[in-house]
Amino acid sequence: MQRATVGQVARLANCNPKTVRSLVDRGLIQAHRDPNGWRIFRDAEATAEKIRQLMLGQDGASNTGRQEELPERKGDDAID
């Protein structure tokens, strides 16, 4: 088991550090704070694997990207 910071986990998971922070803030992965307030992950490899699974939409969760619905088109320019 290896302790790691947000940046280290992001490199292992091949994602942006903002993605790692977002997943922690949403409660999808766990991190602990050190005395300086940094997020610390107790098992870097396991956390990175969990992030990869979440990004692929596995493990019962959707991917981390936001998906916006487009409004229905109405009027003369609508395609039937």
Give a verbal description of the structure:
The protein is mainly alpha-helical and 80 residues long. Strands 1-2 form a two-stranded antiparallel ribbon. About 6% of the residues have low confidence.
Which tags fit this structure?
single chain; 80 residues; two-stranded antiparallel sheet; 2 strands; 5% strand; globular
- Distance from N terminus to C terminus (CA atoms, Å) equals 58 Å
Write down the overall mean pLDDT.
81
Proportion of residues in extended strands: 5-15%
State the shape.
globular
Structure summarized in a few sentences:
The chain has 80 residues and is mostly helical.
Outline the fold blueprint:
Elements lengths: L5 H8 L3 H9 L6 E2 L5 E2 L3 H12 L25
Antiparallel strand pairs: 1-2
Helix pairs in contact: 1-2, 1-3
